[in-house]
Specification:
single chain, mainly alpha, two-stranded antiparallel sheet, 3 helices, 2 strands, 44% helix, binds zinc ion
């Protein structure tokens, strides 16, 4: 770790342990292209609590994109009943984690996630 002089990309905290967020696979198991070390031009470093929130934000974005596709009648990972259910559970979990966080997240507001969950709740899976 060579981030001793850096600051958290989200809250700007300095002088604490930072971790480079390893993005790996997204919520739907797809690989992030920008993660290959050679192509990642703009690596971001986060303190511990922000890295947790960053992960929540990532799942939130992935699920939002798939809900948008489902709503538009396009092919979506959420067309599969188990993925649809998993996404709903994950959104509830994200809301619970955000509400329980000591420090209010600068990355993601639980109200945003609640609105997304409401959208998901009124959707039906095409059979
Ligand atoms: Zn931070």
């Amino acid at each position: 770790m060579d981030s001793a002089s850096g600051s958290c990309s989200a809250c700007g905290a300095t002088g604490i342990a930072l971790m480079k967020l390893s993005l790996g696979k997204d919520f739907f198991g797809r690989t992030y292209d920008r993660l290959s070390p050679s192509t990642d031009q703009n690596p971001q470093w986060y303190c511990e609590s922000c890295s947790v929130q960053k992960n929540l934000q990532r799942d939130f974005r992935d699920i939002t994109a798939e809900i948008d596709k489902l709503g538009a009648g396009q092919g979506s990972h959420l067309s599969a009943p188990d993925e649809f259910q998993r996404a709903g559970l994950r959104l509830r979990e994200i809301i619970a984690l955000l509400d329980a966080a000591e420090k209010r997240s600068s990355l993601l507001a639980s109200d945003e996630v609640k609105r997304l969950l409401e959208r998901l709740n009124i959707m039906t899976i095409p059979v």
